[in-house]
Amino acid sequence: MPLQELLRPDQILPSEPLKNHTSFRIGGPADLLVLPENAKELAEVLECLQSGKERFMVIGNGSNLLFSDLGFRGTVIKIAKNMSLASHQGVFLEASAGISLAALAAKALSLGLTGLEFASGIPGTLGGAIFMNAGAYGGEMKDVVAEASVITPDGARSLNASDLKFGYRHSALSDSGDIVASAKLKLAPGDKEEISRKMDDLNSRRRDKQPLDLPSAGSTFKRPEGHFAGKLIMDAGLRGFSCGGAQVSQKHCGFVVNKGGASAKDVLELIKRVQDEVEKQFGVFLETEIKIVPEK
């Protein structure tokens, strides 16, 4: 069944600029961008694309992605505000994959549930956070996820925490490609004032240390064993180093920022220059943490 019979016209966006859907504000047009509104529509869209052997990828808020300047030849399925319902029962919080972590943390606060404070400033969605086991300030998604409902090529299934095989910025979904439709989190009763204080403290620390005033895709490089990427880059004398509109952040050298009009080509050139210089000076190769998406 064609997508036009599964979704409304306003849920199918042809030649949609991907810079409008990523935190880097970089990326050419996708052939199509589609916006399913529930798990049933998501499953139907996936079945349609898979049966036609069409190229596709799934994104959330696009907070750790770098798309090509030429865009993406295929269909981008966006799971964000279009799939963001949440409910609770006792200490369990259940939500669709597109809800932002900030909104989910705020929901937990309103219910007096603790455990999600670490996630309140992470600029991603629940589905993306589970996919990569996102974390910050000593907390990770593996600490709170009880189960996830995922869409696989064989249909929907439920995975518990052990099935998800969480590791550092990794889960079983990173290998299988299965897509989170919703998840259930197990939190704990807490004091609202204490939860709010902790969230305010973490978000204040984030604002003080990270370049939130400029577009970026978060931490550009993974933390190399025994080192900190930002310190290596700073010690290599690369603070503020630029290629075109892409710049090593003056505030935190672990971030590449878009200081205005940056292209994917600028970012890739800058990443390569940083990797080469750090390896030359310290013998450490910096792996990228952001996902670089080719046009084809």
Q: What is the strand and helix layout of this fold?
A:
Elements: H1 3-6, E1 12-17, E2 29-34, H2 39-51, E3 56-59, E4 65-67, E5 72-78, E6 86-89, E7 92-96, H3 101-110, E8 113-114, H4 126-131, E9 135-136, E10 139-140, E11 145-152, E12 155-160, H5 161-164, H6 172-176, E13 179-186, E14 188-189, H7 192-209, E15 216-219, H8 229-235, E16 242-243, E17 246-248, E18 255-258, H9 264-282, E19 291-293
Parallel strand pairs: 2-5, 3-5, 4-19
Antiparallel strand pairs: 1-2, 6-7, 7-13, 8-14, 9-10, 11-12, 11-13, 15-18, 16-17, 17-18
List keywords for this structure.
296 residues; alpha+beta; Uridine Diphospho-n-acetylenolpyruvylglucosamine Reductase, domain 2; Uridine Diphospho-n-acetylenolpyruvylglucosamine Reductase, domain 3; Uridine Diphospho-n-acetylenolpyruvylglucosamine Reductase, domain 1; five-stranded antiparallel beta sheet; 19 strands; 29% helix; globular
